[in-house]
Amino acid sequence: MEHLYFDTLSAPESDRTQYWRRVNQDYFGALEVDCLDDGSLDAQFSAFEVGPLRMFRIAAPAHRIRRNASVDELPMDSSYKLVLQLSGEAEIRQHDRGFRLRAGDWSLYDPRVPYSITNFERSDLLAVLVPRTQLKGFRVPNLHTSEATSSNQIGLHAVLSSFLRSLAEQLPTLSNGVGQPLSETVFGLLASTMGAYQGDAVEFATLPDVLMARVRQYVQTHLGEPDLSIDRIALDMRCSKRYLHRVFEDAEITLDRYIWRARLERCRAALAAPGRRTPSVSEIAFSWGFNSSAHFCRLFKSHYGVSPRAYQQEAASRHEAAVPLSH
Fold first, then answer.
1. 319: Cβ contacts below 8 Å, ≥ 6 apart
2. Angle ∠(48,100,127) on CA atoms, nearest 5
3. Beta-bridge partners for 200
4. pLDDT for 237-257, tens place per residue?
5. Is residue 58 over pLDDT 50?
6. CA distance 253 to 214
């Protein structure tokens, strides 16, 4: 997956602290960044775009990040921020509440509200900016953490943590085409944890916003199955088709359209993928749940303005042009 990478060791030693502050402020705004380690500053920062999510893998010696009440609006204010501690120990504080973050712990918080995060030792973490629109309808507290009070919450929090930890390790090796399905999985897991937080009951999944996120996650997981349908989704989600349609009434697109758009996007990524063997258009279409090659071709051209075969040939030409000739 394409990303931007920054390393303080690329800067002169006398400039490393300022360079580190500038990298953080370029992405998160005018926050206070204080280094708490007297040694040479050895820090790394990677920025990824995963669908609508922005993810950052950060490794650094002991340091503190703070937002003061006097700070004006920042670019990240249109998002909630989730921080997963991968290694090291830290503490996040907001208002009068604090939470100790150890490896595997995470916190979701509103970055518009003054806060501080102190990493007491060298730490590795994953920061995720989640657009506020993705969590509309949820009562997101100023500081929501992986601290759990029931077995239901413990299980959901552990699953989200495990998925994000694995994702953090694999991000550089993944293709750009998987960004959207990965983001839907994150939304689905996060929505489930928020649903459990809002009402720790067996039927929390019937909350409309939770259900929408879980349905989208379900769709992304089962796209390659030709029998994926609203009937099947309703059965597996234990709700009526009528309720499903009502949940998606205010969404940007209907559930039917969401399914075929997601299939088209997976096919587009497959058509553009380099490889020793070029699969046929029909093979790709059938592998992602279409049962008619002609129908797929019509939808693809209508949506992208070019036929699947022409798109595949254009992508192959770009890959060939990008490969340097050997002598």
1. 274
2. 5
3. none
4. 888 898 888 888 888 889 999
5. yes
6. 16
Contacts 24+ apart (CB under 8 A), 252-255: 255/215, 255/230
Measured CA to CA, the distance from residue 158 to residue 94 in angstroms comes to: 23
For residue 101, what pLDDT band results from cuts at 50, 70 and 90?
A: very high
Name the residue among 85, 86, 107, 89 with its Cα closest to residue 36: 89
Judged against a pLDDT cut of 70, whether residue 326 lies above it is answered with: no
Cβ atoms of 103 and 125 within 8 Å: the answer is no
Tokens standing for 58?
Answer: 């950060």
82: left (phi over 0), alpha (psi -120 to 50) or beta: beta
Q: Tell me what the pLDDT averaged over the chain comes to.
A: 87
Of 242, 193, 247, 183, give the one whose Cα is nearest residue 215.
Answer: 247
How far CA 277 is from CA of 56, 261, 273, in Å, comes to 34, 26, 10
- The Cβ-side half-sphere exposure at 57, using a 13 Å CA radius, reads 20
Q: Is 326 helix (H, G, I), strand (E, B) or coil?
A: coil
pLDDT of 206 strictly over 80: no
Cα–Cα distance, 188 to 262 (Å, whole number): 16
Helices 255-272 and 179-198 meet at what angle, rounded to 10?
A: 140
- Contact of 35 with 17, CB cutoff 8 Å: yes
Yes or no: say if 24 and 81 are a contact pair by the CB < 8 Å rule.
no
Question: Collapsing DSSP states into helix, strand and coil, what is residue 51?
Answer: coil
pLDDT bracket for residue 122 (50, 70, 90) = very high
Q: Which two tokens stand for residue 160?
A: 């989200």
Bridge partner residues of 98 (DSSP) = 93
pLDDT tens readout for residues 184-203 = 889 888 888 877 766 544 34
What band does 205 get if pLDDT is binned at 50, 70 and 90? very low
Q: Tokens for 176?
A: 């750009």
Angle at 318 between CA 317 and CA 321, to 5 degrees: 85
pLDDT at 204 over 50: no
**114, 67 Cβ separation under 8 angstroms:** yes
